[in-house]
Amino acid sequence: MMSSPFPRSILQVAPRVVLSLLLAACSRGPGGTGASDVRLPPAGPPGDPAIPARVAPVFPAGWRLPAGQPATFAPQVMAVSNSPEASAAATEIMRAGGNAVDAAVALGFALAVTWPEAGNIGGGGYSVVRLADGRVAAIDYREIAPLAATRDMYLDANGKLTDKSVYGHLASGVPGAVAGLSALLERYGTMPLSRVMQPAIRLAREGFVVDTALAGSIARARGMVTRFQRSTPYFPNGQPLAAGARLVQPDLARTLEAIAQYGAAGFYKGWVADSLVAEMRRGEGIITHEDLLRYTPVWRAPIRTNFREYTLLSMPPSSSGGVTTAESLNILEQYPALPAYGSTRWFHLVGSAYQRAFIDRNAKLADPAFVPVPLAQLTSKTYARQLQGTISETRATPTRELEPRMQALPREPEHTTHYSVVDAQGNAVATTTTLNNSWGSGVWVRGAGFMLNDEMDDFAAQPGTPNMFGLVQGEQNAIQPGKRMLSAMSPTIVLDRDNQVLLVVGAAGGPTIITGTSQVILNVIQHRMTLMDAMRAPRIHHQALPDSLTFEAGGIAPPVLDSLRSMGHAMRQLRALVNVNAIMRVKGGWEGVPEPRRSGGAVGY
Ligand code: GLY
Prior knowledge:
The chain folds into two domains: 83-300 and 415-483, no CATH class; 303-411 and 494-518 and 539-577, Serum Albumin, Chain A, Domain 1 (Orthogonal Bundle), CATH 1.10.246.130. A hairpin with a 2-residue loop joins strand 18 (579-586) and strand 19. 30% of the residues lie in helices and 16% in strands. The protein is an alpha+beta fold and 605 residues long.
């Protein structure tokens, strides 16, 4: 058992049945979609020191995403998201003269129309910006607990945790997306909101054709959404829209027009706010006009860390993403030479680093406006050296003794969405946004036409008890009015040794966001993979509790799997891990890769 760095309380808590086992997975199905302007990268001469030669990886025989596939290439601009239409909204704005920030805001609003399971105006998120002139910024538009929220609001009369932090009106935090995107545009964009929102308004008013992926997602969400409102644009008369149908969202179009006309006030005041509050009153919701009026996004300094000669800019608390990524990579950096990708030692060291970083994440991180967060310690190389010293070369370190049921969390994380945008000047935006669960709380705001989040479940609704993701978190992340719930979202920009943008990356998938994003980064900068190979490489995940090393089916060679088991790792297999969307600078331009395990679009020119 490892010793001192971690408080025992976080290692000694009792699990509960994970509520989300009840929820059908809501992904859009396999198959990333490269969209228009697809070209192969030019075969430039080798030798640009800033862009090292790429090395072909070896994946296990039979791995379903073989290496060596080309990415979408564009010489000037690139946008990658889980929705081809939303990525195209970004390039439409850049073709019209907008910068990457204008384009990212356009993409964000368009996603609320075309990727309604996670793109949103009823949720929240984070953006990290790196401008071509070297300025960096991060904006936190995470939801906050309503003023009427209380620490034990999700416990029943017997003190047992209910599912009300996941489903229904009470599950929602005060949405931050509209305030955040508007503030981002105002500070770093060049176009008015009314211009950048045009693609989103058009997509909502005129509609777009539902593809098989969206149709599948809608079908899986049927019980969850129709339970609160029988007829919505996704379920006319309670029936799911089929592939090939046109999804037209007139109520959402009117809401977007109000925001385009009045800015964030068009959402937080007036008839849209009235609709949201009226919806709350239909259920057991507690968000009031006062909550909406008080919502404010927060500008923060990005977490800046380095891995070898590369610099990472990522999201500070209220997200745990940047700190936990920095801590994990700092631990790995202590090894002068890291093992080959796919080896027993590679998975052991990476999993052990994540395990240690997540113990800190789950115990020490929360909204910095409410609790002191030891940022300097957790991101320091000295501390990483101390943690690295607790990793045995020959055996896994148990996080704690597990209850048997915790060993078998048979679910894939299917939540949230990330998008990356770069422009011809070299400005870059990484944004991750979410409703938490796919389709959020299941509640659709009548009259205003958007889904509401179930972000309250990201608090420790009962400290010490696992949340929807099986995360066991402490008292520091307990519910308090006005507090932001701890997130794992990790929008990240990586700079090369010449301080040029190399990667713009982030992911969806609850806590696997951190491990998935950082493995793509490691694959590119440690293993020198191409971006496409880095995205297709099999992934692992460790979040301390449950104390298991999760891997993708077929992604670890059988002898390696045997070795990891014999070292004491409880190996847990899932079909797929994490939904990453990324852009990488290459010679002559940019490569964009939407998640090959899901659907999406890389669009550039
Ligand atoms: N709702 C998932 C996260 O913020 O980590």
